[in-house]
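Issue 218. Parser rejects a valid record. Input:
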Amino acid sequence: GAYEQVVGTISAYILTENIALHLEALQSFKDRFGVDRKSGEQWLITIKESEAFIPDVNESVVQVVTITTLTNRQYCIVLDPLGSDGKNQLGQRRLVKGEKS
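Output the parser choked on:
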């Protein structure tokens, strides 16, 4: 329109089986998937949610994350794992034994 100004353009992030996006909410809002996000909350977007992703004005991309694959002789400890409600269980730990991705 007459009073609009292009400040910048943003390209879509292409997600694959091996690449996800680590996002952070800049303020509280409901995301495009219908999930209520609180200011400062962080989460991953994978190919299960979308093949391409353009961040909303309320979202910041923290980093592009590559998949971690464990062999049958490896394990890891996940800090602040997701609970059944889809929210991080702050202060909790979860042991994950290979073979897993």
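Fixed in the parser; the record now loads. The chain has no helices and nine strands.
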